C-alpha cells in the first residue's frame, strides 16, 4: 500500500489578505486554489482568477492540527474558514498562548510588574 501524499497548509484569499483568508490543506497550490475558491465564494462575489494561495512554511505543526485527519490520510485537498486566531490581531497562522494571544501580540503587552 502506498503512503498518502504529503499535504501542506496553504493560505487562500482574494483581494486583501487582511480582510479574510482561509486555510487549505493540499499537496500543491494547483489543488489548493479550487478549495480556497469554494470557501471564499461563500463570503462574497469572488472570481476564480482573483483567488490566490500561498504555502505556509512556518508553524506547520500548529496549522496541521486544523486539518481533518481522514482527509489528510486519504490525501484529499480540503480547507476551513473557521480557524481560531489571536484575540488581539485575529491572525491564525501562529499558535496562541493560554490568554489567546500570538507571540507578537503577547510581546507588546505592558509589563505587569
The poorly predicted ranges are: none
Helix % is: 25-40%
Number of strands: 4
Please describe the biggest sheet, giving its number of strands, its sense, and whether it closes into a barrel.
4 strands, antiparallel
Helix and strand element order = EEHEHHEH
Using the CA coordinates, give the radius of gyration: 16 Å
* Number of alpha- plus pi-helical segments: 4
Cα separation of the termini = 58 Å
Strand proportion, as a percent range, falls in 15-25%
Overall pLDDT score = 90
In spatial order, strands of the major sheet run: 3-1-2-4
Structure, explained:
It is a single chain. The chain is α+β, with helices and mostly antiparallel strands and 113 residues long. 26% of the residues lie in helices and 18% in strands. It contains four helices and four strands. Strands 3-1-2-4 form a four-stranded antiparallel sheet. The longest helix is centred in the first third of the chain and has 13 residues, at 29-41. The protein is globular. The protein starts with 7 loop residues before the first strand and ends in a 6-residue tail after the last helix. The model has no long low-confidence stretch (mean pLDDT 90).
Amino acid at each position: 500500500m502506498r503512503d498518502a501524499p504529503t499535504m501542506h497548509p496553504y493560505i487562500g484569499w482574494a483581494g486583501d489578505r487582511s480582510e479574510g483568508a482561509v486555510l487549505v490543506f493540499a499537496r500543491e497550490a494547483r489543488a489548493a486554489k479550487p478549495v480556497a475558491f469554494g470557501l471564499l465564494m461563500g463570503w462574497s462575489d469572488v472570481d476564480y482568477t482573483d483567488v490566490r494561495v500561498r504555502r505556509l512554511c512556518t508553524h506547520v505543526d500548529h496549522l496541521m492540527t486544523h486539518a481533518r485527519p481522514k482527509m489528510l490520510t486519504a490525501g484529499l485537498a480540503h480547507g476551513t474558514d473557521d480557524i481560531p486566531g489571536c484575540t488581539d490581531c485575529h491572525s491564525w497562522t501562529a499558535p496562541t498562548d493560554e490568554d489567546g494571544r500570538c507571540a507578537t501580540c503577547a510581546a507588546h503587552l505592558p509589563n505587569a510588574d
